[in-house]
Amino acid sequence: MNIWECLGIRPTTDRSEIRSAYAQMAKSCHPEEHPEEFKELQKAYKAALRYAKYKAQTTEIHREEDGPETVSAPENIPEPLHNFEETAPETVFDFSGIDSYGEQEQFFRLFFLIAYNPCLINNLLAWEIFLQHPSFGELFHNPVFRLEFVHKICGLYGLKRDTVLLFERHLQAYQNREPENQQPAGVPETELACFRKLKRRCSWPVHFGAECFTGKEGKKFQNAVMTVFDRQGRVLDLGRKADMEDYMGVYFSFACANEEKLAEMYRSRKSDQRMNLGCAVFLIAGVLAITGEWLVGKWDESRERAAYAQEMEQLQEDPVWIEEMKMRAEADMDHIWNAYQQWAREQDTD
């Protein structure tokens, strides 16, 4: 099957038509229910975009030169009737080199590089700069991409509630703007069970983990990034948009060359946070156990006292018990009187 048959349209260089066809086909080709078909659809979509881009560039060159000279097609650009093949993703991480609709792999790679950075993972300004960049705007028009974006968010650890709410607002802006491009099941991405669970999980007031690089390797990496600005005599304020944009640009250049190390440091922080959380839960459980034991003892004591008082009230109304108490009292009085008389006789004798 060639790319146009997979997209269900005639050969064209109109990108908007290709995008619309892809969005329409994606509604009936859910990635979880039909993974292979969805993968083929993505290949066809990217190949069609590359073809349209190549044809547009070729036409522009011919128009400028006004001559019959042709331009050789770049590698991996399929002809309209040829079968498409999967190509390797690009390795250049420059915002200007990102296709306005199809480079999802590059978006998610940068997304995780931000998440790996403890200084950025909960920095709302950093996420706003990243999500609102024009190069990524077209991606969120695709409901399949938004669904995958939510799944990536739910897989992260260490997000604060404010950060999750920022993602929710960003997604809702596209949901409200394009109601026709909803999920096939009709459920908005922000109403998925995993996303609602994430918001509840992030509602805890306690957040474990440092918001800066820790450890020898982490500090060494951060120092390498900040050295660029130290040489310029600049002191960055990551609360200012201009400084944050500059920091992110330099950070990405270092992070792309050290992605594995950053991922390992992220996993280490994740493990430490879970360990801290486990210790906190264990400590709280211990305190509750001791407090509970003390409360149970107090409860048992008060319950025994209440039972004794109730029993005494019942006995005081029992005539048999009253008569027995009178007999005991008389016996005690006789005993005391006899003891007194014995003492008086002894005194008279002396």
What is this entry, summarized?
The protein is mostly helical and 350 residues long.
Structure write-up:
By secondary structure, the protein is mainly alpha-helical. The chain has twelve helices and no strands. It has helices spanning 3-7, 15-27, 35-65, 104-116, 124-131, 143-154, 161-177, 193-201, 215-231, 241-255, 259-316, 319-349. Helix 2 packs antiparallel against helix 3, helix 5 packs parallel to helix 7 and helix 9 (215-231) packs across helix 10 (241-255). The longest helix is centred in the C-terminal third of the chain and has 58 residues, at 259-316. The radius of gyration is 38 Å and the shape is elongated. The chain starts with a helix and ends with a helix.
Defining key terms:
mainly alpha, single chain
Instruction: Give average pLDDT, whole number.
Output: 75
Q: In one word, what is the shape?
A: elongated
Q: Which segments are poorly predicted (pLDDT under 50) over 5 or more consecutive residues? A: 67-102
Described by strand count, sense and barrel closure, the largest sheet is: none
C-alpha end-to-end distance: 135 Å
Number of helices: 12
